Protein: DUF4367 domain-containing protein
Organism: Paenibacillus mendelii
Amino acid sequence: MRRRISLIAAILLCVTAVLAACGTKDAESVVKELDKVVSGMESYQGKGTMTLHTGQQPLEYQVEVSYQQPQYYRIKLTNAKKDITQIVLRNDEGVFVLTPRLNKVFRFQSDWPANQGQVYLYQTLIQSILNDSSRQFAVDKDSYVFDVMANYQNGSLARQKIWLDKSNYRPLHVEVTDANAAVMVEVKFDQFQFDSKLDKSVFDTQLNMGNGNAEQPTMGGSDEGLLDPMNEETATPPSGSNADMQDNDAGADTNEEKPTGNDADKAADGSANGSSSGEEEPSEGTLAPADEEENAVPAGFTAMEPSYLPEGVAQLDVQDIKFGGNKGIMLRYAGAYEYTLIETQPSDVAVSMVPGIMVDLGHTLGSISGDEEGIQKTLTWTYNGIEYRLTSGTLPETEMLKVAQSVQTEMGK
C-alpha cells in the first residue's frame, strides 16, 4: 500500500513539473519569439507617458507613436503643462520635426531611427534585447522582464529594464538608468496595439501641419491623432512642398565659426564698435548687438536658461542680440568650459533646413555641426518656436547634450 501511494505521489510530482514547465518560458525561447514578432510585424500604435529625470525637476510628456512598414513613423510629444506639442515624422521625403501651432517645420535627411533608437519605439527595445548576449531575464507576475545594456546616443545612459506582456510581448514599462543605477528616463505604456490599419496620409507632412485632413489613427475608440526622437546628414527642403512652405536657413552657415567665450566677446564688441549709424543690417548667421532704440526680443518671446551647469562653470552675462536678422538673447558661460547659448525666434516660415548630425534630446531632435577645423561645435534645436544654438570649442559633446536637455526653465524663475 505504501509503495502504491509513493508511486502515485511520484507521478503527481512529475505531472506538476511538466505542467509548470509548459507554462514558463526561459529567456532563450522568449528571445526567439521576440525576433519573430519584430521581423513579421507590419504596424503598431502606442501611447503612454515619458518622464525625464535628467534635470532638477522631472519633466513629463505624453507620447504617442504610430509605425507602418516599411519605414513610416509618426510620433507626438506633448508637454501638457506648457501646452507644447511637437511631432516627428518619417515618410518618403525624409525626417521632419513639426510644431503645427506655430507653423514650423524642420527637415532632416536621415536614416533615423535605424541608426539611433528611441526608448518608446518597439524596434529599439526589442533590438536591445536581441543584441545583448549577457541579458538578464526574470518573470514578474504577468510580465517578462529583461535587463540589458542601453544603446542610446546619450553616453550617460548605461542600462535599461524592459517589461513585456506575457501574452503578446507588447511593451508595458521601460526604465533607463545611468551608471549609478539612477533612473533617468521612464516610459509607461497605457495602450499598445500590433497590426493596426494605418492610412499613408497619417504620415503626410502637410496634413499633419493642418493643411488638410489626415486620416488620424485611433485606439480604443479614441479620436486623438497618434503620434515622436539619428547619423550624418544634410538637410534640404522637401520636394513637392506647398507654395507657402518657404525655405529658411534659420541660422548660421554650417562651416562658419560660431562665437563662444572670448570669441563671443570679439564678435559682439566688433559689431558694436566697428561701424557708424549707416551700418548694414547683419546678414544670415551674423551676430550683432541689439539696437538700443527698440526692444531686443519680439512679443511672446520667453527666454529660457539651462538648469544644469558643468562643474566649474558659471554664467558670465546675458546680452540682447540680433542673430541672422532675428532678435534674441545670448547667454555666455565661462570657467572649466566656455560656451554660449543663443536664443532667437525665427520668422514665421514653414520649412527650415537643418544641417549636421541628428541627435536626440528627449523632448525634441537637434543637430550638431562643426567648423572646418572640427574644433568648434554647435548644437542647434528648436522648441516651442524658439531656435537654440549652443556653441563651444571646449565643451564635450556629452556635456552639450546635458546642457541642452536642461534648457527648460524660464529666466528669473
Summary: The helical segments are 2-23, 27-40, 122-131, 205-208, 262-273, 397-405. The two ends are 84 Å apart (CA to CA). Residues 2-23 form the longest helix (22 residues). The CA atoms of residues 118 and 229 lie 6 Å apart.
